[in-house]
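User: Hi! I have a protein structure encoded as tokens and I'd like to know what sequence might fold into it. I'm fairly new to this, so please keep things simple.
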């Protein structure tokens, strides 16, 4: 699964890296993004790509309340077109979730070492995601926007750390992935199998990242000495 990630680029850098036409928000650096928090996502609305904020944890339109999102942070690429919670969004509501890296943990329970995974050239990238809008029964309640990150089997470069990884869409497929008219499951599944980044670099980092409350640049500083107290 993907349960924590990092995004520290400013708006100017995001506009250069991703196909963004309009925005509803600013970009703020975060070095320990956790589920249920609001995160940046790029969605296509009325033919334009919008940068907006979505709660991490997808809430289907038919859900009774938003708490269901707590267990919907990830969607498996292998079954995303079959699961009732994700299949409608997979057909029509896909998004790109900008990131600079993500965390995974390796080791025995209670002594797991966190790793920070990035692309070899350290450029920003985009997780393949799904988005939804949920409306409360009270007319005056705001629309609840939410999203999930699609995961897939780990590539050879990630397997030493974890058996799963987020699906990172290659830039060549950004436009097609966002296109709501592209609803063919075969084509979409092909993107998730053959148009994702597979070469990652894993760097051990301080276990302070275990706490989502610890959020500063030191979270991604390489751990030079493996002298960790437990």
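Assistant: Happy to help. Inverse folding works backwards from shape to sequence: for each of the 230 positions I chose a residue that suits the local structure. Here it is:
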């Amino acid at each position: 699964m993907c349960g924590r990630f990092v995004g520290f680029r400013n708006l100017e850098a995001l506009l250069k890296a991703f196909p963004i036409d309009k925005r509803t928000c600013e970009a703020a650096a975060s070095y320990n993004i956790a589920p249920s928090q609001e995160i940046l996502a790029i969605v296509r609305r009325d033919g334009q790509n919008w940068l907006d904020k979505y709660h991490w944890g997808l809430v289907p339109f038919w859900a009774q309340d938003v708490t269901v999102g707590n267990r919907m942070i990830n969607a498996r690429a292998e079954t995303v077109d079959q699961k009732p919670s994700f299949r409608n969004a997979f057909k029509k509501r896909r998004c790109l979730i900008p990131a600079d890296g993500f965390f995974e943990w390796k080791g025995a329970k209670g002594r797991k070492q966190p790793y920070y995974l990035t692309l070899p050239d350290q450029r920003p990238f985009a997780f393949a995601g799904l988005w939804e809008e949920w409306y409360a029964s009270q007319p005056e309640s705001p629309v609840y926007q939410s999203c999930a990150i699609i995961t897939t089997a780990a590539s050879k470069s990630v397997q030493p750390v974890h058996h799963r990884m987020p699906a990172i869409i290659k830039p060549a497929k950004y436009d097609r992935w966002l296109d709501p008219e592209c609803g063919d499951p075969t084509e979409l599944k092909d993107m998730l199998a053959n148009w994702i980044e597979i070469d990652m670099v894993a760097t051990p980092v301080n276990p302070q990242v275990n706490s989502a409350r610890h959020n500063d640049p030191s979270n991604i500083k390489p751990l030079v000495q493996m002298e960790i107290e437990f």
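A useful reference point when you look it over: Residues 226-230 have pLDDT under 50 and may be disordered. Feel free to ask if any position seems puzzling.
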